[in-house]
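Dear Dr. H.,

I hope your travels went smoothly. While you were away I took the liberty of generating a structure for the chain from your last submission, since the lab meeting agenda had it listed for discussion. I wanted you to have the full record in hand beforehand rather than looking at slides cold. The sequence, exactly as received, is reproduced here:
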Amino acid sequence: MKIQIVFRNAFFGITMLLLIVVGVQYAPADTPETNADNTDTKSARAYYGREICKIEVRGNARTLDPVVQRIAGLETGSVLDEKSLSQARINLKKSGLFAEVSIKAQPCPAESGTPITIIIDVEDKWTLIPVPFFSSDGSSVMGGLVAIESNLLGTGKQLISGVMGGTEGLSGFVVYADPALFQSRYKLVLSAGGGVGDEEIATPDGKTALSFKTNSVSGSFGLGYQFTPRLSASVRTRLEQYEISNIKGPAADGSLEIEDSQRQLSLESRYDATVPYGSLLKGFETAARASYSFVVNSPSISGQAALNIPTFAAQRLRFLAAGGFGQRPLLSEEPISGRDGFRTLPFGKVTAKDYWSTAVAYDLPVLTRGWGAVVISSFYEHGWYRSAAAGEHDFYGPGAGFRVYLRKLAIPALGVDAAYNLQSDQTVFSIAVGMQM
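The corresponding predicted structure, in token form, is as follows:
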């Protein structure tokens, strides 16, 4: 058993290393993607090497001018070149706040010499999104509403809140995120939540390993810094207190211990070299996190990487790897099901203290219109995980799904996946909601 685990971990480590090495080498240049971008670039090329004397923002009905300028990363007094122009366009598109982006240059009319004016023309997306939901498994009913505002008062700040209730209990949460604290490179994230609910941890075949009722209250504080447009880092602390009751399932019959609190400190770094590619993204991205639990006095590490390779006519081939290892309290185990690379596991019912997964996927846009696009995805994944409640399991199998990209909404990617776990002979459905594709 130990030899198998060592082999699995070594295989994952080699895969992750190769993906990172290839991805860093592959990271695409910051090049424009659309015909409109090409037209803007050609017209601005005559002004490369000139000093920017003024920046005008147009078309923004909600987003404040300083926010648009801060996201673009262009400053008066700097010199315009192809890299800064292309990076500004990428920054604005990847912010998720704008449906259209155009950047042009023209001479400053009131200045002598060669200074230029940069004109940033954008179209705001609708950013206040209510998401009602309802679910039932025949024995229980759950419903609620999540409200997402990703451009609070036009400042680019995010506020997410939600309330959920039903036969399993009542709970709520709120998250506040400032991607540019005081218009600086610092980032701030605050969250709080609490309530009563039923929790379930399942094995890959869908059988319940452990179920229990929680009455919890939690809070977290995170502070980050954006070193470059691609590289960022953050520190986060999380506190949570539980009251556990009504413990059931096969895992409850053993010596399993469920801690009644969580106190955790985490350090995270992220490298994102992806650029817009039609309704998708291309390029390489990776993230790593190191955490320390003050409940079990033990560290843990986790990481993930994705290489998105453009193929034909806005199609994309993806290679993904993710993994994590360390001693974690049961209620601090990583929720892994429902993520890319883990979609063959029961949706929302699998947590792990040790895990790894590799996957390959292909994305095919089948419909593109002014309102957005429909993308069909197919994938194959293979992985392993270990949980204090469910034990250790292999999983592997194919799957397919679709995403609907809504161009004028700040949360454009909505979709459903179906995957078949060949190891457990189970078909799993999962839901995807995200800012990027």
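Two observations you may find useful: Residues 35-124 form a domain with the Ubiquitin-like (UB roll) fold (CATH 3.10.20.310). The longest helix spans residues 2-26.

With kind regards,
E. W.
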